[in-house]
Specification:
Blueprint: E1 10-16, E2 19-26, E3 29-38, E4 41-47, H1 51-68, E5 73-77, H2 81-89, E6 93-95, E7 98-102, E8 114-117, H3 121-132, E9 139-143, H4 157-162, E10 167-170, H5 176-185, E11 189-192, H6 201-204, E12 210-215, H7 227-233, E13 238-245, E14 255-262, H8 269-293, H9 325-335, E15 342-346, E16 349-358, E17 372-376, E18 385-389, E19 395-403, E20 409-410, H10 412-416
Parallel strand pairs: 4-5, 8-9, 8-11, 9-10, 11-12
Antiparallel strand pairs: 1-2, 2-3, 3-4, 5-7, 6-7, 12-13, 13-14, 15-16, 16-19, 17-18, 18-19, 19-20
Helix pairs in contact: 1-2, 1-8, 3-8, 7-9
Length: about 425
């Protein structure tokens, strides 16, 4: 059976009366998953002539039904032989002629052993979702306190304490004591979901089934570093979250799942991170049954065309006013909180720019790039702005700024206090 990813499909869901209807389509093939509440459970019917399409439809249909009806499990009675095979591939269990997927996957009772590694906010939320679905790790690896300054740092301590999960904090996932702890845990899977370090071979070879990672691009595109900033800098309008099997080469392992997401024109680093986190939570929740059934795909990645995205450092955030306004808008929104920020120099003093807007209704002018051409006054709840000419003659409105030794503030305050005036040229 050929495995299909959600990046291959169009999936929609609607409520009609008491029924939840999930439809999936790929080219000429279509399928429906129709679920209804039945006491504490939900009953469902899966109609899909394409067996490969039926698998992801069964996965997402069950998760949505469990949430929509607050059900303990979803049941499909007396499916055809082909649908039964698809349900089993999607991780459904069965009793006689009834196939079912429970909310509580009971990894401990089924002896499915997972070691979880993560040190950022998305890691904490994904692990919370796993615990909610009965996929409690037997060991968690978290960032040491010395890494608290990293963007998005999250402490897994409370989550682990509340769920009696042993937690090992470390600044180096490959150090001998970590390797020894993972070996003793004897996992089927090592899930590295939010760890900014390459996992080396000694650790990779320990899990019985394999190691899984998450990367917020449509691999092989976007492999490498700083995926969230680069997605925005490049002005992408869509991308995907890739679940893949870790290998010795970075971001090169076989694919287990891919989920698309949209990048909105108004997204910044924080809002895009939130979108990706939500997609990855749904993604992990839906693959957990296949994790237990050992039916996750291993699909080789396509041969990459472009080079990996490079690492970004705080000093890389300098604003090049020679660039077009739209590129600089992408630059600022890509590097804003929780990242170190975009910046420009003003008379030798660094000015961070945390929020900016491209003025689409202003015609191109002839001012030199980096020149302050005026200001917008605050109006009601709207903050004012400093207006700066860009390389294409269009204007970038600076909304939120911060001197490197000061507090974040509205950019118009610099105008009001005389720190920046018309005719000044930023970037010097």
């Amino acid at each position: 059976m050929k495995d299909l990813f959600f990046t291959d499909l169009v999936v929609e869901s609607v409520r009609e009366g008491t029924s939840l209807i999930v439809r999936a389509r790929r080219d000429e093939d279509e399928g429906t998953f129709i679920a209804q509440p039945a006491g504490e459970h939900a009953t469902a019917r899966l109609d899909c002539p394409n067996q490969a399409l039926a698998v992801p439809l069964a996965m997402t249909g069950a998760r949505r039904a469990l949430q929509e009806f607050a059900a303990a499990r979803v049941e499909v009675e007396r499916p055809s032989r082909a649908i039964a095979a698809a349900l089993q591939h999607a991780g459904y269990l069965h009793e006689g002629e009834t196939f079912y997927l429970p909310l509580d996957l009971a990894f401990d009772l089924r002896n499915v052993r997972v070691v979880f590694a993560g040190g950022v906010e998305s890691s904490r939320r994904i692990m919370t979702a796993m615990v909610h679905r009965g996929a409690r790790p037997v060991l968690a690896l978290g960032y040491a306190a010395s890494l608290r300054g990293r963007s998005g740092f999250a402490n897994l301590g409370s989550l682990c304490d509340d769920n009696t999960i042993p937690l090992l904090r470390t600044a180096d996932i490959n150090e001998p004591r970590v390797v020894a702890a993972v070996r003793e845990a004897a996992p089927d899977y090592l899930c590295v979901f939010g760890w900014s370090q390459i996992v080396e071979h000694e650790l990779l070879r320990l899990p019985r089934v394999g190691c899984l990672g998450l990367h917020p691009t449509r691999l092989p595109e976007g492999r490498g570093r700083a995926p969230v900033p680069w997605t925005l800098i490049k002005g992408l309008t869509e991308s995907a979250s890739s679940l893949y099997w870790l290998a010795r080469r970075v971001d090169a392992g076989e694919l287990a799942d891919q989920r698309p997401f949209t990048v909105r024109p108004t997204d910044d680093a924080a809002s895009l991170y939130e979108t990706i986190t939500r997609v990855q939570i749904e993604q992990v929740e839906e693959i957990l049954p296949r994790l237990a059934a050992h039916t996750l795909p291993r699909t080789p990645q396509r041969t990459p065309v472009d080079p990996p995205w490079p690492r970004r450092k705080p000093e890389d955030g300098v604003i090049d006013w020679r660039r077009p306004a739209h590129e600089l808008y992408n630059w600022v929104r890509a590097l804003t909180h929780p990242y170190p920020g975009a910046f420009t120099m003003v008379n030798g003093r660094r000015l961070m720019v945390w929020r900016a807007e491209e003025l689409l209704d202003a015609p191109p002018g002839r001012s030199r790039n980096g020149k302050v051409v005026g200001a917008q006054l605050p109006a009601g709840a709207a903050e004012g702005a400093l207006l700066v000419a860009c390389g294409d003659g269009r204007l970038l409105a600076l909304r939120r700024v911060q001197w490197e030794d000061g507090a974040e503030q509205g950019a118009h305050a610099l105008w009001a206090e005389g720190a920046i005036r018309t005719g000044m040229r930023l970037g010097s």
